[in-house]
Amino acid sequence: MTSEELALASSNHTPVTKFILLGFSNYQDLQELLFVAFLLIYVMTLVGNLGMMALIFTDCRLHSPMYFFLSVLSFIDICYSSVVTPKLLVNLLASDKSISFEGCVVQMAFFVMHATTESFLLASMAYDRFMAICQPLHYSSLMTKGSCIQLVAASYAFGVVNSTIQSGNVFALPFCGPNQVPHYFCDIKPLLHLVCANTATAEMVLYIISSLVTILPATVVLTSYSLVWVAIGRMRSAAGRKKALSTCASHFLAIAIFYGTVIFTYVQPHGSSSDSNGQVVSVFYTIIIPMLNPFIYSLRNKEVKDALQRKLHVNNSPC
C-alpha cells in the first residue's frame, strides 16, 4: 500500500474481530489424510514426552541435571505443540476456520513464550554438557538443583519478555479489513502482512529481537559444544569417548534442527521465502520436533533404556 492508501484504510477501518486461518487450505483433497497424520504425530508427541517425564521423575537414577533439563524440555514441547496442533486439527475438518482476535493474541503469546523458552533451555543443556565433560571435578558443586532451577526460570523469563514484546509489536498495530491468514496458526510474519499501516518498524523489531533470542543461546550452544568436542578428542578412553559422543550427538542433532528452522523462519530478511515454504518449515518446529525430541534423546541413551527396562520389570528396584 502507498502512504495515501494506508491513511485512507486506517481512517475507514472496521476493527477485525476474528482471523481466518487458511493453512493447508490449498490441499482440499488431502484434508482427511493431513488430519490423520497430524493427529498421530500429536498423540506420539504427548505419549513420548509424558512418558519421558514420568520415567525421569519415577527413576531416581535419572535424578541428575541432564535429565531434569530433559523433563523440562518434554514439558515445553507438550505446551507449545498443544498451542498449535489442536486448532490445526479442528480446522482441517471444519468449514469454519476462524479464530477470535483474542484467541489469536493468546495463541501467539503462548507459542512465542514456549518457543523462546526452549531456545534458552537448549543453551542451558549445552552448558550442562560442557560442565559435565570439561569441568567434571566442579560439576556437582556448580550444577546443583538450585542452579538448574535458576537456569529454567531464566529461560522462562526470556520467553515471557520476548512474548510480551512480540505480541505488543504486532497487535498494537491496526487491522483494518483483510483477516485471512495464509498460515495454520497466528504467527508473527503472516499477521504483519494484514496490518493496514507501515510495518517497517515492526518488522525491524521482529528481526532484531528474533536475532537476539536465537543468536545469543546459539552462541552458548556452539561455544559449549566446541569445547566439548575438543575435550572428547583428548580422552584416552575409547569407552569414555563413545559415551560422551553418544549423548552429545543426540543433543546437537535436536539443537541443529530447532535452531535451523527458527533461523529460516524468523531471522531471514523479509520476503525471502514464500508463505507455503514458511508453512512447511513451521511444521518442523511446531509439530515434528516436539515429537522427535524424546526419541532423539532416548534411543541412543543407555541410561534411559536401562530405566525403561527397570520399569518393564516391576519386580526390580528402580534404584
From TrEMBL:
Name all G-protein coupled receptors family 1 profile domain ranges.
48-297
Q: Does the keyword Cell membrane apply?
A: yes
Q: What membrane topology is annotated for this entry?
A: Multi-pass membrane protein
Please report the name of this protein according to its UniProt entry: Olfactory receptor
Q: What does the record give under GO molecular function? A: G protein-coupled receptor activity; olfactory receptor activity
Cellular localization per UniProt = Cell membrane
Instruction: Report the source organism.
Output: Sciurus carolinensis (Eastern gray squirrel)
TM helices/strands, residue ranges: 33-55, 67-85, 105-127, 148-165, 204-232, 244-267, 279-299
Alphabetical list of Pfam families matching this protein: 7tm_4
Record-stated family = Belongs to the G-protein coupled receptor 1 family.
